[in-house]
Amino acid sequence: MRELLSGVAVKHLDETGFRIAGKTRWLHMLCSTSLSHLRLGTGRGDIPSGLAGTIIHDCWPPYLALEAVEHGLCNAHLLRELQAIIDHDKEPWAADMKDLLSDALTLTQIAHDQGKPAVSPEQAHQIHQRFDACCDQAIKFHEGLPPLARPTKTGKRGRPKRRTGHNLARRMQTHKAAILLFFDDLNVPFTNNEAERDLRMTKVRQKVSEASSL
Question: What is the pTM of this model?
């Protein structure tokens, strides 16, 4: 199965923890829209290697460290993070970014429906400009806030702690190409739902098994 997936252009990655005989094990998913490869490992970082093409994932650092691949990030995760910033911190940039991602998705869906290979250059330019403006707005906003209080313990050094919204904006700015890959390449999906769906049934079966053993 792994060999069959090696020739697939777009692949999805995800992982989930399992308790087996009292020990934590990790089930790693590598899949496409038609093939799924599951592998049990002893550690969460025991991820697939030697991959090629495009991989879609949730921005977990070990996935980002994979080389010789093009990265696409799960925008469903980002939308949830943005919504949390909107609900709890009331930061305007997060609402703007959420609207931008929704608008970009709509444009790709229209292009698909019309049989076009890509969105128009004008649309692409506008979305990329809006993305940059949202990130700049967020970072400028946070840099204008007073720094968070440092820990009271003596001897604590290092860079000041950043707020959640600040970290999210910087991460989105850093990984802009991976976030907007679905928009720049219509063969790339908006989310990593393919891998999450394929893993979900294993978790359901585990819960049923645990319940039946009580």
Answer: 0.89
